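pinging the channel bc i need a second pair of eyes. not urgent but kinda urgent?? the chain im working w is below, pasted from the shared doc
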Amino acid sequence: SAQSAAAQGAAAQASAAQASAASGTSAASSGGGGRVRGDRPIGGNPFAGFTKVLTSPYLLGIALFVVFIATVNTILYFEQMRLVEAAFENTADRTRIFARVDWIVQTLTVFCQVFLTGRIASKLGLTTLLIIVPVIMIGGFLTLAASGTLIVLLTVFVARRVGEYAFVRPAREMLFSRVDNETKYKAKNVIDVPVYRGADALSAQVNAAIQGAGSSPAHIALIGAGVAVAWLVNGWMLGRKADGEDARAPRASTPTS
């Protein structure tokens, strides 16, 4: 529901703030990821976010990360619709199973945000937050390709949603804490809306074309596993860059005798 999504979004932002504080990250930097102090008021062209994204390898990496999120979500969504429709002819039964899944997702998300997100960020670093879900999705898609059962699909679907709300969203907010305010808000709006929605629509068309070409659900699941591998590599590269900056920051701020 809209209320539950809003609550999860607010909780994710709170987790991002907690995790950022725990990992010692500080907001401010240039569009390429370097750290600077003293943000200036936001102004200028509202379409400047597109230019900032296209001219910054760091922001392009975040945009690609979002493209992989949207692609994995779309593949799982269509597979969920296919299996649920096959398993439950009654609309009321489908509604009941979706409601139960939502309850499980919300419960596990709150638990993870309260007890795990900040601890993982502080002890294992941002890289771990970014790659947890891709690693799970690789195993999930491979299992789905091998079995193709509803229970496996629902397990993977719950793991994906919980991981996105509890780990991926806070990690994305922490990535944006490394750029100045103008870059953050303009580029973030571009990535969160046009990039995500465009990737969602495009992946839906590609998924329909693959199905129309006669590919089996197992083949589509294997494609999903390949996307998850690329997502893992992308998240690892982004996380290593961010964790490397965090490791250098204390040394740079230590006065020399």
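so Residues 65 and 231 are 6 Å apart (CA to CA). and The two ends are 58 Å apart (CA to CA). — does that match what u expected or am i reading it wrong
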